[in-house]
TrEMBL record:
Pfam families: ADH_N, ADH_zinc_N. Gene3D superfamilies: Medium-chain alcohol dehydrogenases, catalytic domain, NAD(P)-binding Rossmann-like Domain. This is Zinc-binding alcohol dehydrogenase family protein. It comes from Microbacterium terregens. InterPro entries: ADH-like_C, ADH-like_N, ER, GroES-like_sf, NAD(P)-bd_dom_sf, Zinc-ADH_QOR/CCCR. The keyword DNA repair does not apply. PANTHER family: QUINONE OXIDOREDUCTASE. Keywords: NADP. Residues 11-311 form the Enoyl reductase (ER) domain.
């Protein structure tokens, strides 16, 4: 048996409860993983609250897509992993648990020196950031504006874009300016007058924008500063993107990700693990909560507590 977090109705963080679940032996191409840390993403809270489309609840629903841990069993035909291997899990289902069984393809070897909490922090943010930058073809000739640059997705966006030669202006609260600067971006405070502040910081113009904030301001300022609407993407206002003539990748968009976009989301993980191992990528951790305190972890993510929040079984 394992311990897992589930909900049986949509609602506030309090609908998350701890339960015992059976762990089946891993099947063909599957591995069982003893979870050391699970990543908490805003989408987990949005789904729990019923604020993102999901199937009707017909029984207890598991939570979480990202984790890190140690392989505890391997199924038939698994050739990439052995019992005892340290792994990162991404794009899986129900990672808020003490043990999970996942397809081999949802795991990557965790390099020495990459802690379980760091590993669990990667999946959704790095996949989203990497894919969005690839989709917008951001490169050395670009000045990129990223909204919510201090968040988990924003920090990954900044780091890839800087690595790929772009100049980056990133919005955040002033208390987060140092972190944004440390990653190689020019920080700018969100709020009234944003467009003028960005113009002053980027007199050469802004060529692409990524909205990880979801505010009207983020959309309006992006539209005011970037001439080519195909180079503006929202990750939060997917439902409204078409009416603004901009692009959206998930975030409530009615358009599913293409096979190429999904491929980029997966490609991000080995790329990022290699960068981490080389000391060329940085993850800001927030508070870690015991697994049973999943409601407090969701409250923290909804309160905007800085850094990636994790759950420790
Ligand atoms: N489409 C997708 O596939 C996808 C994937 C991942 C995430 N997302 C969405 O992207 C958003 C960010 O995710 P995350 O994991 O980066 O969240 P996060 O780590 O919780 O960061 C949230 C960020 O929002 C910033 N923020 C708060 N109020 C703001 C405002 N008025 N204007 C601009 N920024 C503001 C905060 O900045 P300060 O702390 O500096 O105030 C913080 O950095 C979430 O809505 C999430 O659901 C979408």
């Amino acid at each position: 048996m394992a311990t897992a977090i589930v909900y049986t109705e949509f609602g506030g963080p309090e609908v998350l409860t701890v339960t015992d679940v059976a762990v089946p032996p891993p099947g063909v191409d599957e591995i069982a993983v003893r979870v050391e840390a699970a990543g908490v993403n805003p989408i987990d809270a949005k789904l729990r609250a019923g604020r993102r489309a999901s199937p009707a609840l017909t029984g207890p629903r598991r939570v979480g897509t990202d984790a890190a841990g140690v392989v505890s069993a391997v199924g038939d035909d698994v050739d990439g992993f052995r019992v005892g291997d340290e792994v990162v899990i991404f794009g899986a289902s129900g990672t808020y648990a003490s043990e999970i069984v996942v397809p081999e393809r949802d795991a990557q070897p965790r390099p020495p020196g990459v802690s379980a909490e760091i590993g669990a922090a990667l999946g959704v943010p790095v996949g989203t950031a990497y894919q969005t930058l690839r989709s917008l073809a951001v490169g050395p000739r670009d000045t990129l504006l990223v909204h919510a640059g201090s968040g988990s997705v924003g920090q990954a966006v900044i780091q890839y874009a800087v690595l790929w030669g772009a100049r980056v202006v990133a919005t955040s609260s002033e208390r987060r300016f140092d972190r944004v600067r440390e990653l190689g971006a020019i920080p700018v405070a969100y709020g009234e007058g944003l467009a003028d502040r960005v113009r002053a910081l980027a007199p050469q113009g802004v060529t692409a924008a990524i909205d990880a904030a979801g505010t009207d301001e983020a959309i309006e300022v992006s539209l005011a500063l970037v001439a080519d609407r195909d180079r503006i993407a929202t990750l939060v206002r997917g439902r409204d993107a078409a009416s603004f003539g901009i692009r959206a990748f998930s975030g409530g968009s009615p358009r599913p990700l293409s096979a190429i976009e999904q491929g980029w989301r997966r490609e991000a993980m080995p790329v990022t693990l290699a960068l981490l191992a080389a000391g060329r990528f940085s993850v800001e951790l927030g508070p870690a909560f015991p697994l049973a305190d999943a409601p407090a972890a969701h409250q923290a993510v909804e309160d905007g507590v800085p850094g990636k929040i994790t759950l420790l079984p």
